[in-house]
Design brief:
Blueprint: E1 5-20, E2 24-41, E3 46-50, H1 57-64, E4 72-77, E5 80-81, H2 86-91, E6 93-96, H3 109-119, H4 124-137, H5 153-164, E7 171-175, H6 183-196, E8 201-206, H7 209-215, E9 218-223, E10 226-231, H8 233-238, E11 244-251, H9 257-260, E12 265-272, E13 277-284, H10 291-300, E14 304-311, H11 315-323
Parallel strand pairs: 3-8, 3-9, 6-7, 7-8
Antiparallel strand pairs: 1-2, 1-4, 4-5, 9-10, 11-13, 11-14, 12-13
The structure holds adenosine-5'-triphosphate and magnesium ion.
Length: 334
C-alpha cells in the first residue's frame, strides 16, 4: 500500500452566486483556490503548507479529508483516492479543522473522547481505555472530568488533538493547529507533535513561520493556489543566500521610497507602531558595502537609527522574494 499523501495537479474553483432577496441571481463569482498543486508526504514526515490568508491551505486539507471535492487532479491518502474511495480514505486519517469549536463544550474531555471513539466504532471499553491513554498523553488526567467549557483554549485544543488520534490513524491532517493559542500552550502542542507522533505522516497548515521552521521536515510555500517554493527549511533559506537581510530600528517615521534608490536593494518592508518607532527590513545585495547609505537615508528623513543588524533570513524572506508579499499579515513588500 502506498502510505502517505500524494497530490497531483489538484485544482479547485469555488463558484458562488450572489442573489437579490436571497432568490434572484444577480452575479456569479469564481475563486480559483487551487491552481494545480503537486506534493507528497511520506510516513514519518511532517510537511507544512505555509502561506498567507486565502492561499488555499484549508482547501487542500478539506479535499484530503473528503470534505470538499476537487475539480481536477488526483489526491490519495494511504493509497485511497479521496474522491473515489472516500470511506476508506477517511478511516486512515485524523483531522483538525476549525480548532476548539469542533468538540462539545458541555461534555467533559473524557466524555468527548469516549463519544467520538464510539463514532469511530470502538467498543465502549475500547473507547474508555483509549480516552484514558490519550488524556495521559496530553497531561489532562486531572481535568478529564471537567466540562470543556471550563477549559482554557489550550486544553480544549489538546482534546481536539487527542480526538484526531483516537483510531490511531497513520495520517494526520492539521489545519492551523495552534491558531490563537498562547505561546506556552502552542509550544507544548508543537513539542507533542514532534516527539510523540514521529511515526505518522503529518500535513499541517500554518501562518506561523517559526512553527513551520520548528516542526516541519519539508515546507511547501503556497501563494494564490500555487506552490511557489518547496524544500527543507534550511534549503529554502539557502535560496536567499544571494542577499543580506538588514533590519533597522528607527525612532520616527520614514518613507520606503528613498531606501529603494540604494544600490543592490530588492525589497523593503516598513512597519511603524503607535509609539512612533519604525522597523525597516531590507533585502540587499552586499549590505555591508552600503550600510552608510542606509544610515544617511534615515537621518535625511529626520529619523534616528536605534539599532541595526544583519539577520538570518526567515521563511518570510523567502516568501517575499518569491511573491513580493509577506506571509504573516499579507502586507505587500516593496
Ligand atoms: N466555501 C467557499 N466559497 C467560496 N470561496 C471560498 C470558499 N472557501 C474558500 N474560498 C476562497 O478560496 C480561497 C482559498 O481559501 P482557503 O480557505 O483555502 O485559504 P487559506 O489558505 O486556508 O486561508 P486562511 O489563512 O485565511 O485560513 C480564498 O480566496 C477563499 O476566499
Ligand atoms: Mg485556512
Amino acid at each position: 500500500m502506498n502510505l502517505g499523501i500524494s497530490v497531483r495537479k489538484l485544482t479547485k474553483t469555488y463558484r458562488s452566486t450572489k442573489r437579490k432577496y436571497g432568490v434572484v441571481p444577480v452575479s456569479k463569482r469564481e475563486t480559483k483556490a487551487l491552481k494545480g498543486i503537486d506534493f507528497k508526504v511520506q510516513r514519518g514526515e511532517i510537511v507544512g503548507l505555509l502561506g498567507p490568508n486565502g492561499a488555499g491551505k484549508t482547501t487542500t486539507i478539506k479535499i484530503l479529508s473528503t470534505l470538499v471535492l476537487p475539480d481536477s487532479g488526483e489526491a490519495t491518502v494511504n493509497g485511497f483516492n479521496v474522491v473515489r474511495q472516500p470511506t476508506e480514505a477517511r478511516a486512515t486519517i485524523g483531522v483538525i479543522t476549525g480548532g476548539e469549536r469542533s468538540i462539545y463544550h458541555k461534555l467533559s474531555g473524557r466524555e468527548n473522547l469516549i463519544f467520538f471513539g464510539r463514532l469511530y466504532r470502538l467498543t465502549r471499553n475500547e473507547a474508555k481505555e483509549r480516552a484514558d491513554e490519550l488524556l495521559g498523553l496530553m497531561g489532562l488526567q486531572e481535568k478529564a472530568d471537567i466540562k470543556c467549557e471550563d477549559y482554557s483554549s489550550g486544553m480544549k485544543m489538546k482534546i481536539v488533538f487527542a480526538r484526531s488520534l483516537l483510531h490511531d490513524p497513520p495520517t494526520l491532517l492539521y489545519d492551523e493547529p495552534t491558531l490563537g493559542l498562547d505561546p506556552g500552550f502552542a509550544r507544548e502542542i508543537r513539542q507533542l507533535v514532534r516527539d510523540k507522533l514521529r511515526d505518522k505522516c503529518i500535513l499541517l497548515t500554518t501562518h506561523y513561520m517559526n512553527e513551520a521552521d520548528f516542526l516541519c521536515d519539508r515546507i511547501d510555500l503556497l501563494h494564490e493556489g500555487q506552490i511557489v517554493a518547496s524544500g527543507t527549511p534550511a534549503e529554502l533559506k539557502r535560496q536567499t543566500r544571494d542577499f543580506d537581510v538588514l533590519t533597522l530600528q528607527i525612532k520616527g517615521i520614514v518613507r520606503v521610497k528613498p531606501f529603494k534608490g540604494i544600490p543592490g536593494v530588492s525589497k523593503v518592508t516598513v512597519n511603524s507602531d503607535a509609539s512612533d518607532a519604525t522597523t525597516v527590513r531590507v533585502h540587499v545585495r552586499d549590505g555591508a558595502a552600503v550600510l552608510r547609505r542606509f544610515l544617511d537615508t534615515v537621518e535625511a528623513q529626520g529619523g534616528k537609527v536605534l539599532r541595526f543588524a544583519f539577520d538570518e533570513p526567515t521563511l518570510d524572506d523567502v516568501f517575499i522574494q518569491k511573491t513580493g508579499r509577506r506571509i504573516t499579515n499579507g502586507v505587500s513588500a516593496q
